[in-house]
Amino acid sequence: MKKVLLTSVAMIGLVYAGAASAQIKIGVAGPITGPNATFGAQLKNGVEQAVEDINAAGGINGQKLQISIGDDVSDPKQGVSVANKFAGEGVKFVVGHFNSGVSIPASDVYAESGILQITPASTNPTFTERKLWNTFRTCGRDDQQGGVAGNYLAEKFAGKKVAVVHDKTPYGKGLADETQKAMNAKGLKEVVYEGINPGEKEYSALVSKLKAAAVDVVYFGGLHTEAGLIIRQMRDQGLNAPLMSGDGIVSSEFVSIAGPGAEGTLMTFSPDPRKNPNAKDVVAKFKAKNFDPEAYTLYSYAAVQIIAEAAKAANSVDPKKVAEAMKAGKPFKTVIGDIGFDAKGDITRPDYVMYTWTKGADGKITYTENN
Amino acid sequence: MDVFVQQLINGLTLGSIYGLIAIGYTMVFGIIGMVNFAHGDVFMLSAFVALIVFLVCTAWLGIGSIALALFIVMIVAMLVTALWGWTIERVAYRPLRGSFRLAPLISAIGMSIFLSNFVQVAQGARNKPIPPMVQDVIVLWTGPTGYTVALSYKQIIIMAVTAVLLTIFWYVVQKTSLGRAQRACEQDRKMAALLGIDVDRTISLTFVIGAALAAVAGTMYLLYYGVVSFADGFVPGVKAFTAAVLGGIGSLPGAVLGGLIIGLIETMWSAYFSIEYKDVAAFSILAIVLIFMPSGILGRPEVEKV
Q1: Helix, strand or coil for residue A98?
Q2: Which of A200, A225, A233 has the CB atom closest to B235's CB atom?
Q3: Which residues of B touch A260 (CB under 8 A)?
Q4: Label partner for B14 (CA 20 to 30 A): which of A115, A278, B121, B189?
Q5: Which residue of A has its CA nearest to B133?
Q6: Which pTM does this prediction carry?
Q7: Where are the domains of chain A?
Q8: Distance between CA B17 and CA B47 in Å, rounded?
Q9: Residue A265 — pLDDT band, cuts 50, 70, 90?
Q10: d(Cα A94, Cα B198) in Å, to the nearest integer?
C-alpha cells in the first residue's frame, strides 16, 4: 500500500513537472513583508502586471510566463535562501531584490544556478562590478546618484554646514560615501559624519549632535523609515534643517512616518517614470487596480519587458543566451523608455534629478521634480 | 556643557523607558528564577494596543484633549497588556513549573516569536505611525554659541510618569501584603506556601504588574517616537534585559538604575564618540561591570539555599 502511495505521489510530481516545463518561471524577490514591505509591493505589482500583459500578448516565443514570489524581508540571509528556493523551483529569471545588501549575496547563488537577475532597485555599484554574467539593473548606480547629490550640495549649500549620515548598509553607506566624495571634490567638507543602526527608533542623541554642530542640511544614505524617524526627532528638538536623501526614501510611507516635517526634504531619483509617455497605458492599468505605480513599480515592469524582448531577440529562453542578447548593445523598448545595457549590465542612460517633497493643494506631502 | 545637558536629558528619557521594561525582567527572575524572553514582545504588543486605543480615541470618539486621550490610552493599554501577561504566564509558564530549568526558558523564547509573528500577521508588517503630538518644548537656556538646551513636554511626561509609577510600585512591594507575599516567594517559595501564601496567585500578579509597567513603557515609546512596528520588541527588550543584569537581576532599584545607566551610556557615547559603536560601547561596559561585580551593581550575591 505504502509503495503504491509513493509511486502515485511520484507520478503526480512527474505530471506537474511536465506541465511546468511548458512555462517559463520568473521569480520576483524583495521585502514582501517587514519594514520595507512598501517597496516589495512595488516590485511585486510591477512584475505581476508585466507578466499579465506579456502572457495576454502570447508570452515569449509561445511560452507563457509563470510567477514565483520570494520574500527576503530585506535580510541578506533570507535573500540567499530565497535564491536557493528559486534555483530549486527551476526559476530562470529573477526580478529583484530590493536592497543592495540582499541583491549582492543572492546574485552569487543565481550565477551558479544559471539564473539571470535584473534588479529594479539595487543601486550599489558592487552589484555589477564583480564580472558576473547574470547581473543587470534597470535603475542607476550610487556613484552616479551620489555624484548628482554631492554636486547639488556643493552648489546650493556652498559654505554651509552639511552633515552626512548613513545606515551602515551597503546601499546607505555606499550612497553616503559617493555623495561625500563628490561634495568634497567640489570643496565642501561635511561637519558631521555618522553611521546609525537601522531598525532602531532612538536617534535623539544623533539629532542633538547635529544640533550642536548647527548643521544647515543633513544628507542621509538609507531608507525611508530611518529618514522619517530622524526628521521627526529633528523637528521635536527644534532643528529645522532639511534632510536630503536618495532613492531609498521614495515611498509615500516616508511622509506618514516623518510627519509634517517631511516638507522640504530633497531627494535624488530618476525622472518620474509615471510621466514617461511610453508608460501611459500601463499606468492607467495600475490605476484601474487602485495601485499607484510609484517609484520602482515601472522599473520592475520594464525588467520583465526586457527579459521578454531579449528572449525573443536571442530566440531562446536559456538565461545565458538571453544575457548575451541583453549585453549586445541594442536598446529595448520599455515603459520607462529605451534601455540598453553596457558590458557590466548597467543601463547606458542613467539619469538622476533632484526632487523636493512639498505640500500639494490637497494638503498631502508628495515629491515633485525640481525645475 | 550645553550639549552635555541636552544629551543628559535625552539619555534619562531613554533610560526611563528601559527601566520600566527592565522591572518586568527583574521581578520575574527574582520570583521564579526565569528570564522571561517574551517580555520585550509584551512591551511591543502594548505599544500596538496603545496605538489602536489612541486612534480609536482621536478618530472615532473625537476626544480633542491630548492629555485625556493619553490617560485613557495608558489605562487601557495597562489593562489589556496585564491580561496578556497573565495569560502568557498561565498558558506558557505555569504548566512547566517544576519541570527542568530550560523548559520555561524555551517556552519563553517560543512565546516571544509567537507574539512578534502574531502582531506581524494581525497588524501588518509595516511601521505604524501616529501624527506627531505634544510638540511643545521648554527652552531651558541658550548657550553662548546659540545652542538652545530644550526639554520637551514629551520628555517631561515620560520622566514624570516613570517616577510616579515607580514610587507607587515601590510602595506596593515594600508596604502591602501583596508585596510581602511577593518578597516571601522570592526568598523561599516552599516555605511561603507552607505559611499559607498562594504562590501561584503571587506569581501571576508578578506577571501582571510587569506587563502593566511594560505597557506604560510601550505607551511612552509610542508617544516619544510616534512609530511602532512588530519588530520593536527585540532591541528595547535586549537593552532592558541588559539593564536588569547590569543593575543586579532580582533587584528592583537595580533595574531602574541599570536602565538609566544604559540609556546614558548610549547617548553619551553617541554624543562624544562615533554613533556607529554605541552598542559596542554599551555592551563592553556591561561585560566589564560584570567581571568586577558579578551580581550587578545592586544585586545580592546568590546564596545557596540548603
Answers
A1: coil
A2: A200
A3: 132
A4: B121
A5: A236
A6: 0.80
A7: 2-137+275-339, 143-269+352-369
A8: 12
A9: very high
A10: 61
Would you say A189 and A215 are in contact if contact means Cβ atoms under 8 Å apart?
A: no
**Could you tell me what percent of chain A has a pLDDT over 90?**
7
DSSP string, A247-289: GGG-STHHHHHHGGGGTT-EEEE-S-GGGSGGGHHHHHHHHHT
pLDDT in tens, A273-293: 777 777 777 788 888 888 788
> Which residue, B36, B6, B9, B3, is CA-closest to B244?
B36
CB-based contact, B225 to chain A, within 8 Å: yes
The single residue listed with the C-alpha cell 509584551 is B42
* Average per-residue pLDDT for chain A: 83
**CATH annotation of A2-137+275-339:** 3.40.50.2300
Domain A143-269+352-369 has CATH 3.40.50.1820: no
- How big is the A-B interface in CB pairs under 8 Å? 105
* Number of continuous H segments (helices) and E segments (strands) in chain B: 11, 4
B138 contact A CB<8A = no
What does the block give as the cell for A53?
500583459
The residue among B227, B235, B238, B269 with the most chain A CBs within 10 A of its CB, best to mutate, is B227
Which residue is closest to B13 within chain A, CA to CA? A204
Q: Does A115 touch chain B (CB under 8 A)?
A: no
* Helix %, strand %, coil % of chain A (to 5): 50, 20, 35
> Given a cut of 70, is residue A53 above it in pLDDT?
yes
Alpha-carbon distances, residue A71 vs A41, A74, A78, A80, B61 (angstroms)? 11, 8, 8, 11, 38
Q: Residue A176 in contact with residue A221, Cβ under 8 Å?
A: yes
ipTM rounded to 2 decimals: 0.83
Name which of A3-7, A189-193, B278-282 the model is least confident about.
A3-7
